[in-house]
Design a protein that fits this description.
The protein has 22 helices and seven strands. With about 550 residues, the chain is mostly helical. It has two domains: about 400 residues, no CATH class; about 120 residues, Rossmann fold (3-Layer(aba) Sandwich), CATH 3.40.50. It has a three-stranded antiparallel β-sheet. It has a two-stranded antiparallel ribbon with strand order 1-2. α2 runs parallel beside α19, α4 runs parallel beside α7 and α8 runs parallel beside α10. The radius of gyration is 27 Å and the shape is elongated. The N and C termini lie far apart (about 65 Å).
Length: about 550
């Protein structure tokens, strides 16, 4: 009884402590935001500092994750200036915006234990859930996305909770958690068919039972969508959330033949770190396939109405369908698009590992020297051996992931130094014009909530030159760019228009060019006077 209690309670708690250590180590890294993290963190800062809880602007994601990030900023990041105005230090804001995702990633590991126990209650009886828990705890993929401000982390927790409730046959709760996931990110709807399959398998037979359950399932989903529509309408933006989401994420076509292999290569590179290194991941996938085939050839352990091998088939078919969809349809090649597969892949890999348990049980159940049965139940030895093996294989990749040294996750150093660049620009005189073509949300976030610079974007060199010549100011303007950006056409167009262009500073991966405008005539100044009122939008970020 004591040993059973240790297996049941002590080991999961130890794993959770280990999980928290890795995730908080990732949270403590001094890394800058990925461009999309900067986008979501900027909206969250608008809510926490400016009180803009409607998140006005071009936003293509539902608000729940951004609200969670904003609340985190309010409690762990926002400070008050001497004049009573709220503000948020950029680096403190990084920590605050990433904290909800970190906590969600920790909770996800615990949910995986509950989900595995519910889907596979006959699996010896705690080894399978503990292996699934360990795989998720040590997955470089999970760790790399834990301390990020993407909207995917909270969505992943919500849809995994929906799976758990689906495995329990709880129609209403499954629908509610899917609605919460949808409120974090629209991709949660991809889980609807999978959750419905589990619900149907777990529910009592009979048309009336299915119809009643389906109503309970759909009600929170519909309510969540309606609330989101009302919220978006209340924002009163020219372009609504739905139109922006379609514009930014609608693939619109199947891939061309010459795209098949390059896309497959990218997705496989991403997936290779789901369970350690690519070699270890491939080995575990092969083991899972062998275990699945072996189980289908013989009668497997089962539970009423949901045999374990049928659960395997459901999960595997979903993984294959989701993978084919993202390979053959021209979705963006974003590494985070594979996150919804992670819980399912972890479950299938854990099934492969536990398939080996009967083999090792026969070995460990008998003393090799005396031939007598061991006094200690072999499950403890088995799990201890599995833990040591997994730690040996996965600990170094997991640690690398917590320090941002894997090919998935956040920014991974691409925008290192952008905070120093923002500080340099902020030291320029009030109302200095900053022509920003490449750095967008990242630079805007690090310049702060109350920057007093006029930062503007132009899509082409011609558009920049046209408006730059209309501005009747002789003060220098500045043009920051990454060192590898194609700046030559821009600088040539500015020089041809009469601007003096000089390198003002080199900061990390960035170069700041100073632009000295040509002398303006009285006629050009009068033209600009009619144009100038439109430039008041440049000061929209000023306090007061």
């Amino acid at each position: 009884m004591r040993r059973d209690s240790a297996t049941r309670y002590a080991l999961p708690l130890l794993i959770m402590l280990f999980v928290a250590g890795l995730r908080f180590h990732a949270l403590g890294q001094d890394t800058r935001f990925h461009p999309d993290e900067a986008l979501f963190a900027t909206f969250a800062r608008q809510a926490a500092v400016n009180g803009d809880w409607l998140l006005l602007g071009n936003l293509d994601k539902p608000p729940l994750t951004i609200y969670a990030n904003a609340l985190s900023m309010m409690f762990t990041g926002v400070t008050t200036l001497p004049d009573g105005v709220l503000t948020l230090d950029a680096h403190r804001g990084e920590f605050s915006a990433r904290l909800p995702g970190t906590l969600a990633s920790i909770l996800l590991v615990a949910v995986m234990y509950a989900l595995a126990r519910r889907l596979y209650p006959g699996e010896r009886p705690y080894v399978m859930p503990l292996v699934a828990m360990l795989l998720m705890a040590l997955s470089p993929y999970a760790i790399a996305f834990s301390a990020t401000a993407f909207t995917d982390g909270l969505m992943l927790l919500a849809i995994t909770l929906a799976l758990w409730q689906g495995a329990k046959g709880q129609w209403g709760w499954a629908g509610l958690w899917l609605a919460v996931g949808f409120g974090c990110k629209q991709q949660a709807l991809f889980y609807v068919p999978l959750v419905l399959l589990l619900l149907v398998r777990r529910s009592r037979t009979g048309r009336h039972s299915y119809v009643a359950g389906f109503r309970r399932f759909v009600l929170p989903l519909v309510a969540g969508i309606v609330l989101l529509v009302i919220w978006d309408a209340a924002r009163g933006q020219d372009t609504n959330l739905w139109a922006l989401a379609v514009a930014n994420n609608d693939p619109g076509r199947l891939v061309q033949p010459d795209e098949l292999l390059p896309r497959l290569s990218v997705w496989l590179d991403y997936a290779g770190v789901m369970a350690g290194t690519p070699f270890v991941t491939a080995t575990l996938v092969g083991l899972a396939v062998v275990a699945l085939l072996a189980r289908f050839r013989r009668k497997d352990e089962s539970i009423p109405r949901l045999p374990a091998h049928r659960t395997d088939a459901i999960l595997l078919l979903y993984v294959v369908a989701y993978s084919l969809l993202h390979w053959l349809v021209a979705f963006n090649l974003y590494d985070r698009y594979l996150l919804p597969l992670l819980p399912l892949v972890v479950l299938l890999l854990a099934r492969g590992v536990t398939w080996l348990v009967p083999v090792f049980a026969k070995i460990t159940d008998t003393n090799a020297f005396t031939g007598r049965p061991r006094r200690v139940a072999p499950t403890i030895y088995l799990f201890a051996g599995i833990c040591l093996l997994m730690l040996a294989l996965f600990l170094l990749p997991a640690w690398d992931a917590s320090e941002g040294r894997v090919p998935v996750g956040g920014d991974r150093g691409e925008h290192a130094g952008i905070d120093a660049l923002a500080d340099y620009i902020n030291d320029k005189p009030v109302a200095t014009v900053i022509y920003d073509h490449w750095l967008g949300w990242e630079l805007g976030y690090y310049m702060g909530a109350w920057t007093n610079k006029r930062r503007v974007y132009y899509p082409t060199p011609e558009a920049l030159v046209r408006d730059a010549l209309q501005l009747p100011e002789s003060e220098p303007r500045y043009f920051p760019a990454p060192n590898d950006a194609p700046v030559t056409p821009w600088l040539r167009a500015l020089r041809e228009a009469g601007f003096e262009v000089d390198v003002d500073a080199r900061i990390g991966h960035y170069t700041v060019y100073a632009l000295i405008p040509p002398v303006f005539s009285a006629e050009s100044a009068s033209v600009v006077e009619s144009f100038w009122p439109d430039q008041r939008t440049w000061f929209a970020g000023w306090p007061g």
